[in-house]
């Protein structure tokens, strides 16, 4: 026998109310101490005996029939049955070795006890002895001189009018209890977090699973909120609750930042909540507690912040791109007097800018890889003629755009005047990253096996664009070398500049 079974049996036997258990044949299967005391019988006398044989109502066939009918109704319907008033004398020892009938009035409830499959196994009888009410009735009638047929207040009670009213109240109570359970179910299943706090210390009376998840499934029932959630100190929420309790005015928060310790011994986590503290009033209109209801909107708030950052970044990038396009147009116009050559050169440079934009778009403008940019700008000249040597290097958006324009100019000049203008020419591009605490990109562009190089007599658009982008936009250094054996360019570009600017 399990501990729970022992506890239930002990509670059954210790109850001050009389209980007895019948089989479906209406034979005694058990009874508690209070029942034995009322009937003045022993357990051995009753066990296995038929209830109607042991207690025959002293020949009162009408009330014996009412009792038997109630038992049969439970057996037939598998539902409880109640006898608000039953006149049923019981045999008790007369003290001289015989038995006498003791006149009694009872209120009886018969409840079905079902097995795991829902089949009725036993009938549980719970009785209340209301004999004293009947005695009071006779005393009241004698004191007032009322005829027996004139119902007194106690007659009304005992005859069933008030009892029927009590039954109606009981039915209403059952309906209200059912509605209460439904409300509790809705409360517990609500998608948002819900809690009920009681008293001026805001003690947790109940809360739903969503609230438990919000606070890391801590055991908080019966605890004041300052003890249950101590990390809220200094965040203003205790004060909001105090004010609602004191004034009776609700408090609402939207997108409110809250730091909670959702895992034991873990650092505080930041969440954002939409919530309302609604006062709960008692029958006299006094604030008795606070109803807490809300939703975790952390994802929504973070998404909105990210969207704002993206819009701000987009505005910034559009302005920069327009400025770049304007600069390209002006510089290209200075270098090309003929509209046809201007259009060709301008379009090529815009396409280079577009290629880099495509790479950044694929990564949601989080950056681009250096090798990918180089491959984009040199693929038209054949991969067998371009040698790329270096580790993966992630570039920020601004650095990627500037280097994309620079590599386009270098590739264009190499195809027009340098190593890629002849069939045997090649371009070697090597890079590395130094000083990982403050990373710097070192890149060398070397042209080999091309025609002899002649240093330009004046600085053209390409060299001006390269030098301006490296020194101004990238805060780096560049050295252009027009050696006869082949053009080369050496770059040093800091890679943490965009992070510093952010």
Structure overview:
This protein has helices at residues 3-14, 33-39, 43-46, 51-54, 61-77, 131-144, 153-159, 161-189, 209-214, 225-228, 237-247, 298-335, 339-362, 370-378, 397-416, 461-473, 497-501; strands at residues 19-23, 28-31, 81-87, 90-93, 99-102, 105-114, 120-129, 193-198, 203-207, 251-260, 269-281, 287-296, 368-369, 386-389, 394-395, 426-434, 440-448, 477-483, 486-494. It has 502 residues and is α+β, with helices and mostly antiparallel strands. A hairpin with an 8-residue loop joins strand 10 (251-260) and strand 11. Mean pLDDT is 80; it is low at 1-6 and 148-162. It contains 17 helices and 19 strands. The radius of gyration is 46 Å and the shape is rod-shaped. It has 3 domains: 3-129, PAS domain (Beta-Lactamase, 2-Layer Sandwich); 190-296, PAS domain (Beta-Lactamase), CATH 3.30.450.20; 305-501, Heat Shock Protein 90 (2-Layer Sandwich).
Provide key terms for this protein.
about 500 residues; Beta-Lactamase; Heat Shock Protein 90; 3 domains; 19 strands; about 45% helix
